[in-house]
Each structure stands twice: as structure tokens, then as C-alpha cells.
Specification:
68% helix, alpha+beta
């Protein structure tokens, strides 16, 4: 998690002094550097600074309001460590804790990137689904975990939650379409691979319908499937908005999306009709649960932060009057 963010701006020369003065006036900003005429595309001055995570959204909102997103350029990166006294002073001037602050522009930008799709996304989702199908055949819980970790779908689910929460219809539609297309392609290719494996005598319907004490849960969803999906969705969105990406591994291992897709592909290819509905339901429950939980988490985060800032300003005003 980054307590300090590094901001690099390209600002038209006639607006540069305004930006520098605004940054200097904010005690939550430090390490301000101005390089006149250093930028060429777009042309302008380069301004760099370190901003506390809690103040980053405020600074970015002001820059957008001033039109600098269109007239200049904005780049944001996390600072792994900033032990200087100036940085510590800036952090003390910022209300709240870095974990609690959401950098909404970064969240939205990441969401659009996730919803854009690429052949790599389809490749990872297909490979994960194929690993899950092997896990079903061999009744291997280790392979189930491996398939969960390889699957790239949570980023798209998080993008869908962001699109719904911020009412960005284009982002929400792109996310839904990518999820649908991704799982259709992954299930279809895995089913074709299963048919090929059956043709050479490697598998048959009995491998899917046989007792599977370690992986049978994949096609038998219950109330706990919904509970885990909701909890994982909350944890996943919170880890992304708070900058704690290491928690995502736990989210990947918790949800049964990719394993359900692998079971569904095998059930279709080797024709185990009594498992098709169960695995499809498991997939749908997990995707829906994570999406709903993601939206609720974003609502809660924004509400808590606004309540905290309101209370902070109220206490500050009371001290001034006293």
C-alpha cells in the first residue's frame, strides 16, 4: 500500500504558475519540482510532486476542473517508500489513513483497462478453465486452487462493479460483454479439448459422474457459495481501491468461477446433464455475488470517507470558534 503518490504533470506554460501556487498552498503536497519547457508532446512545463494518498483525489479533481486533463497530461504512480521529514509532515496534514482513501480516477482508469479485453485475457481464462477441467477429472483440489489463481476474471467483475456504482453505462456494458464472451470462448475450447481427449480414450463420462469427494462441491452450489462470493467480492474490491493487491490472491482462491466453468465444459462435452445446471448455477452465483458485493463495498467506502471528512471539518471548526 502506498501512503504517498507521485504525480507528474505536463501543464501549458501559461497555466504553470497557477498549478505550482496551488500545490504549494496545500500542506499535503511535498517535493514540488517545476521544469519549464521540458515537455514536447504535449508541449508545456513538467511539474512533479508527491501527494499523500488522502489528498490525491482532491488534487486530481482540481486538475480536471481546470481542464488540464485535456490541455496537458497527468500520470500517477505509487511511491514504495518516502522516509523524508517533508513526506511525514505532509502525511500528518492529511486527514484519515491512507488505506481509507480511494483514488477514484485511478480506480476508473484501471476499470476501463480491465474491461478493454485482449487475447491474453482470453488465453488465461481458457487455460484456467482447462486446468479446472483436469482437476475435475482427477478430483484434485490442488489443481482447483491452481485454476482459481490463473483465472483473470475478477478484474472484469471489479470493473463491472465500478461501472454500476458510478453509473458509467459504457463501462458496465463492456465488462458484461467481456465476461460473457470470455467464458463462452473458454468453455467452448475446453469442451473441444475434452471431446478430443474422449476420442483418443483418455476420458469418458464416468470421469465426470464418478464420486468426487474433493471437487464435487463445484457443481453443487449452496447458500455458502453465495456467502463466499459476497465476502470475496468485498475483499477483492477493497484490496484494489485501497492499493493492497496482495490480498487478491486470497480472493482468487476463494471463488468458484473458473472451476465451475471447467466442470460445465466437461459436462457438456461428455454429457453429464445432471451436472450442467449445477455448475452453471455455481458460475452465475459467484459472478453475481461478487458484483453486488463490489458495488456495496464502493458505496460503503465513499460514505465512510465522506462522513469522516465531515466530522473532521466539524471538529476543526469547533476549535477555531473556541
Amino acid at each position: 500500500m502506498w501512503a504517498v503518490m507521485h504525480l507528474r504533470l505536463i501543464v501549458p506554460a501559461d497555466r504553470s504558475q497557477l498549478v505550482v501556487d496551488t500545490l504549494l498552498a496545500d500542506p499535503r503536497v511535498t517535493s514540488i519540482v517545476r521544469l519549464p519547457g521540458a515537455a514536447h508532446r504535449p508541449a508545456g512545463d513538467v511539474i512533479e510532486c508527491d501527494v499523500t494518498r488522502e489528498a490525491t483525489s482532491d488534487i486530481l479533481t482540481w486538475l480536471k476542473h481546470e481542464g488540464l486533463y485535456d490541455e496537458g497530461a497527468v500520470a500517477l504512480t505509487g511511491v514504495d517508500a518516502s522516509p523524508s521529514r517533508n513526506a511525514q509532515t505532509a502525511e500528518k496534514a492529511a486527514p484519515g489513513a491512507p488505506d481509507d482513501a480511494v483514488i477514484w480516477d485511478a480506480v476508473v482508469d484501471q476499470a476501463y483497462n480491465e474491461a478493454g479485453g485482449s487475447w491474453v485475457y482470453y488465453a488465461f481464462l481458457t487455460l484456467a478453465t482447462m486446468i479446472a477441467s483436469v482437476a475435475v477429472i482427477t478430483d484434485s483440489s490442488i489443481l482447483v486452487v491452481g485454476a482459481m489463481v490463473v483465472g483473470p476474471e475478477f478484474g472484469v467483475v471489479a470493473a463491472l462493479a465500478v461501472g454500476l456504482f458510478l453509473r458509467k453505462g459504457g463501462l458496465a456494458r463492456a465488462s458484461v460483454l467481456l465476461l460473457l464472451k470470455g467464458f463462452i470462448v473458454a468453455i467452448a475450447l475446453t469442451a473441444l479439448a475434452a471431446l478430443l481427449a474422449r476420442a483418443v480414450g483418455w476420458v469418458d463420462a464416468g470421469d465426470v459422474t464418478a464420486a468426487r469427494p474433493l471437487t464435487g462441491f463445484i457443481w453443487r452450489p449452496d447458500r455458502w457459495s453465495a456467502v463466499v462470493a459476497v465476502l470475496a467480492g468485498c475483499a477483492g474490491v477493497l484490496s484494489q481501491t485501497a492499493g493492497r493487491g496482495n490480498a487478491l490472491v486470497g480472493v482468487f482462491i476463494s471463488v468458484t468461477t473458473v472451476p465451475a466453468a471447467g466442470d460445465l465444459a466437461l459436462s457438456l462435452a461428455l454429457w453429464a446433464p445432471h451436472q450442467i445446471g449445477g455448475s452453471a448455477a455455481q458460475l452465475g452465483i459467484n459472478l453475481a455475488g461478487m458484483t453486488v458485493a463490489g458495488v456495496l463495498t464502493l458505496v460503503l467506502q465513499r460514505s465512510i470517507w465522506r462522513i469522516y471528512l465531515r466530522a473532521k471539518r466539524g471538529r476543526a471548526g469547533a476549535r477555531v470558534e473556541a
